[in-house]
Amino acid sequence: MATPRSTTTTACFFFLLCLYSSFYPSTSAPLFPKSALPTKSGYLPVNPATGSAIFYAFYEAQAPTSPLSKTPLLIWLQGGPGCSSMIGNLFELGPWRVVPSHNKNAHNLSLDPNPGPWNRLFGLLFLDNPIGTGFSIAATPQEIPRDQHSVAKHLFAAITGFTSLDPLFKDRPIYITGESYAGKYVPAIGYYILNKNPKLPVSQRVNLAGVAIGDGLTDPVTQVATHADSVYYSGLINERQKRELEEAQREAVEFVKIGNWSEATNARNKVLRMVENMTGLATLYDFTKKKPYQTSFATRFLNIPEVKRALGVNESMVFEECGDVVGEALHSDVMKSVKYMVELLVKKSKVLLYQGLYDLRDGVVSTEAWVKTMKWEGIEKFMTADRVIWEVNGEVAGYLQKWGSLTNVVVSGAGHLLPADQPLNSQAMIEDWVLEKGQFGRKQAGSSSKFRATL
C-alpha cells in the first residue's frame, strides 16, 4: 500500500509544476492563428510547361468603403533584385508583423497586428518576384529573368492568373506598388500592361489605375551620380572625400555610356562600399539608425514548417530574404534605366513617387535628380509646383509636391523601408493617393503652406 504524500510535499509539487509551466508552456498558441492567415495564398503559374510559378499572399480589405467588385487592389513588389515580398508583408505593410515574443512558443516569435496596414481599405496582394525569389519557384536557373521585359512578362501572367481566381477580382482598379529595385519592376509591368491591353479583348485586360514607387532605383545612371552630394551635404564626409566619390561615380557612368553593364553594376557597388566605409553608418538605408533593419525575425518565421504549411508552401523549401541566384541573374540589368517607362505611365495613368527622408541609397536627392530629366509635357509645371507641408493628425508627416498625374511625397522620420518606419503615415499616404482625397486629389499641390490629413 502506497504511503499518502504529505500536504507540504503536494503543495511543493504543484508550486514547482506551476513555476515550470510559466517558463516552459506545455501548450503554446499557434504561430499562425487563423485570424492572421492570408485570405488566399499559393502559386500563380508563369510557365505551366516547366512548373515555374510566382508565390502570392493576398489579404482582402479590412473595411472597404465600396463593394468588393470595385474595391482597389494594391499589388506589392519587393526590391533586391531577389528580395521576397513576404518581408514587405511581415515587416512593413501587411496586416501582421513578426515580433520577438519570449516564452510564448519554442521559436520565441509571434504575430502582432500592424497599426498601419495597407489593406485597411484595399485588397493587398504580395508577389514574390522574379521567380526564384522567396517562395517562388524557378524550374531552372535559366528561366529566371535577365531583363525587365522578362520580369514584366512573368508578372503579367501572375496578375492575370490571380484576377481569374475570383469573378470579384476582374474589374477592380489595380495599383502596382513597390520599393527599391521594384523602382524598375513597377514601371516594367505597368509599361507592359499599357502596351498589352490594346491587343487583348476587354475581358482579358488588366485594369491598371496607377503605380507607386517607394525609394526606387529607376534611372540608375542619373542616381549613381548623386551619392557624393547626398552624404556631403548631410555633413557625413568632407570635400576631399566628396571628390573621391565623384570620381568613382564617373567611372560607373562611363561604363554605362559604353554599354558595359556588368562593370557598370560593379562600379556602382564600389561607390556604395566607399560611402559605407567613409561614413561608418550602420546602414545607408537610414542614416539615423544605430543598427540595420531587423528583418531577420520575419526570415526565421518563414522557415518554420508550421508557417510554410499554413501558406501552402512545400516544407522542404528554404526561405531566403534575398536570393543571390536572382541577384546574379539580373546583375547586368541593374544600371539600365526604365525612366522611359515612367514617362509613358505618367501620361496614361497616375504615378506616385515617395521617399523616406533618411534614405541615403535611393532617397530624395536621388529621385529628384532623375525626375527633373523626364520627357513629359507636365514636367516644368511639376518642378515649379510648391512642395507643401503635409500633416497627419496634426503633426508634420512630410512634404508633398504634385502636378497633374505625378505626385512626389517625402516622408519624415523614415528611411528606405518606409512603411516599417512610419506605418500610420504611409497608410494615410497610399489611401489618400488612391482615393484622391485632400491635397492628393488636386491637380496641383497648391500654394497653401500646409495640408492636414486625419485617419
UniProtKB/TrEMBL annotation:
**Signal peptide position in this chain?**
1-28
This protein's GO cellular component annotations are: extracellular region
**Keywords attached to this entry:** Carboxypeptidase, Hydrolase, Protease, Secreted, Signal
Major place of localization? secreted
Annotated EC: 3.4.16.-
What terms describe the molecular function in GO for this protein? serine-type carboxypeptidase activity
Q: Name one Pfam family in it.
A: Peptidase_S10
Its annotated compartments are:
Secreted
Please give the biological process terms from Gene Ontology that the record holds: proteolysis
In which family does this protein belong, per the annotation?
Answer: Belongs to the peptidase S10 family.
How is this protein named in the record? Carboxypeptidase
Provide the organism lineage as a comma list. Answer: Eukaryota, Viridiplantae, Streptophyta, Embryophyta, Tracheophyta
